[in-house]
Amino acid sequence: KENVDSRHSRGRGGETTRFHTVNVAQPVRFSRKCPTGWHHYEGTASCYRVYLNGENYWDAVQTCQRVNGSLATFTADQELRFILAQEWDLEEKTFVRKDQRRFWVGYQYVITNRNHSLEGHWEVAYKGSSEVFLPPDPIFGTAMSENENVLCAQLQCFDFPTLRHHGLHSWYAENCYEKSSFLCKRSQTCVDIKDNIVDEGYYFTPKGNDPCLSCTCHNGEPEMCVAALCERPQGCQQYRKDPKECCKFTCLDP
Predict the structure, then answer these.
(1) d(CA 157, CA 57)
(2) Cβ(164)–Cβ(158) under 8 Å?
(3) How far is it, in rounded angstroms, from Cα 186 to Cα 48?
(4) Among 13, 142, 221, 232, which one is least packed by beta carbons within 10 Å?
(5) What gap in Å lies between CA 206 and CA 219, rounded to an integer?
(6) CATH number for the 39-187 domain, one of 3.10.100.10, 3.40.50.970, 3.30.930.10, 3.20.20.70?
């Protein structure tokens, strides 16, 4: 409570101990489980980010790995619908039409028979991926080479709100050396009050409204939290608490 009278209690030696309680820990909802620029989906406890600078498939793979992720694969229709419904940051230069955006994702199309229909099948690009669903038959890209037996997957999304919210999309099998935007996926993580990523097992102050919380990062969630209680600033009647620094105040007295 903000304005609590001084409380007195009798210490061991009979001396008077004074307590000035400034803030009391309250239940906090931790809404940020992804770094800035990433979108969180509770259903898979994952974070997603579209990189709009054009890279070929193999460079896109490395970019995702550098941020502890991989090119996105999907476990269920609900996850795909979440991706299609997002409004991704569109400020950077892109390599496709503004209303129709295509992203590299973590699938490859293996051609088994080069007849008129290009028979083949989808595979997950990374054998260690969790259980995923595979795309339907693709639309084949225009930059195909006759010598290529493996094509890479692009998911086409639409920016028009009506099309986006109806989940309209297409799957393309494209030459892997074409440049395209791409979609990375990584596990949710702990993000502290200053937007820094926190490693597993470390202490941190989670995003929220209490800068005096200290929690342990466990599986991307803050757990075993403890709160500090601050003594009110001396000789100051009106003050403001710093929203990001524990026990730091600004005196508002004249």
Answers:
(1) 18
(2) yes
(3) 7
(4) 13
(5) 14
(6) 3.10.100.10
Which of 2-6, 66-70, 178-182 is least confident? 2-6
7/78 Cα distance (integer angstroms): 54
The whole-model pTM stands at: 0.65
Distance (Å, whole) CA 236 – CA 251: 6
Judge whether 175 and 145 are in contact, CB under 8 Å: yes
Place of tokens 């493996």: 150
Element (H, E) at 70: strand 70-71
Quickly list H helices, the chain: 57-66, 77-85, 161-165
SS3 60: helix
Of 2-16, 31-45, 121-135, 158-172, which range is least confident?
Answer: 2-16
- Stretch (H or E) spanning 213: strand 213-218
Residue ranges, CATH 3.10.100.10, the chain: 39-187
95 band by pLDDT with thresholds 50, 70 and 90 = very low
CB 43 within 8 A of CB 80: no
pLDDT digit string (tens) for 175-232?
999 999 999 998 887 888 887 888 888 888 887 778 888 888 887 778 888 888 888 8
Alpha carbons 138 and 109: distance in angstroms, whole number: 9
